[in-house]
């Protein structure tokens, strides 16, 4: 049971990292204007990197066996990261509006 909890935690952190990585790509796009082809190429590279990172994590931690709870942990990590960022944006907007 302890192995599965550690594996879940590592998969969760992998999801957090992947969501953070995509935020970095979005920030890069915001700073430098991109055409549709560049955005498509960046997205393709991002998803290829996601596949490699998830496969690497599965291979290192679980001998390459795909477990549903590991994929769920990656998705959960990504979703919780995005919800946390939304919460921070709401707080920032409220603070900004209260200063005015």
Low-confidence regions: none
> How many DSSP-defined strands?
0
How many discrete structural domains?
1
Percent helix range: over 70%
Approximate strand percentage: under 5%
- Tally the helices: what do you get? 3
Mean pLDDT figure: 91
SSE order, as H and E?
A: HHH
What's the Cα radius of gyration?
A: 17 Å
The major sheet is characterized as: none
Shape: flat
The assigned structural class equals: mainly alpha
Distance between the termini: 53 Å
Keywords: Membrane, Transmembrane, Transmembrane helix
Organism: Anaerosacchariphilus hominis
Pfam family, one: Spore_YabQ
InterPro entries: YabQ
Could you explain how this protein is built, in words?
The protein is an all-alpha fold and 100 residues long. The chain has one domain (2-99). The chain is 89% helix and 0% strand. It has three helices and no strands. Helix 1 packs antiparallel against helix 2 (36-62) and helix 1 crosses helix 3 (68-99). It starts with a helix and ends with a helix.
């Amino acid at each position: 049971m302890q192995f599965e909890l550690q594996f879940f935690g590592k998969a969760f952190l992998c999801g957090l990292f992947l969501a953070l990585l995509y935020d970095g790509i979005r920030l890069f796009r915001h700073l430098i204007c991109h055409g549709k082809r560049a955005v498509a190429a960046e997205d393709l590279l991002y998803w290829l990197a996601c596949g490699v990172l998830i496969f690497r994590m599965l291979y290192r931690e679980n001998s390459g066996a795909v477990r549903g709870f590991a994929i769920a942990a990656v998705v959960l990590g990504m979703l919780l990261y995005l919800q946390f960022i939304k919460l921070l944006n709401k707080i920032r907007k409220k603070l900004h509006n209260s200063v005015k």
